[in-house]
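Researcher: Quick one. two chains, 226 residues in total.
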Amino acid sequence: ETGVTQSPTHLIKTRGQQVTLRCSSQSGHNTVSWYQQALGQGPQFIFQYYREEENGRGNFPPRFSGLQFPNYSSELNVNALELDDSALYLCASSPRLGADTQYFGPGTRLTVL
Amino acid sequence: EDKVVQSPLSLVVHEGDTVTLNCSYEVTNFRSLLWYKQEKKAPTFLFMLTSSGIEKKSGRLSSILDKKELFSILNITATQTGDSAIYLCAVQVAGGGADGLTFGKGTHLIIQP
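Model:
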């Protein structure tokens, strides 16, 4: 059973650019959540996808958007990058909505210059 | 707004010491409290607590929840250098909508040989 994987590992972008981060959920998991973890902070919930639909969103602007595909993999897109978007972006999957816990991937480190 | 506060934010102890990490929370519709260990990137699951007063134990780690006073503690006995990590506390709420976790800032634990 493979765990949650994310790509790329690291990414450097400049202000105003757009970025796409990818996540493959753990086998058998249909729910994916995305988190942003700034340096020295705990992860902050961005949004969750369940069966290809957004199932709730944290306090993030619309330039943060996502997709989930039929195989339950997911993408996080961020438009018009700002310096404060520099962070570790974590993807977590769970076997169903309302599952007891979420299993995290290794994250993508995004640096915005 | 849901809130999770961890203390201390950082802690340096010597190998063999016992440590207690604290987590207090204020959330609507509490469902569960989770502890994660974050060494490099991916937070790894330690415990999930839903019932007050029932200790969860795994080797040298144990945790307990007090739903009346709205806090949890994570104990690590006979610490080892491999216990050095950031320990994250998160709360999950019940009801409809997303299963997004609300995290505290974490406790950065350093175990010195």
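The interface with chain A takes residues 4, 6, 32, 34, 36, 40-45, 48, 88, 90, 97-106 of chain B (CB under 8 Å).
Researcher: Thanks, that's what I needed.
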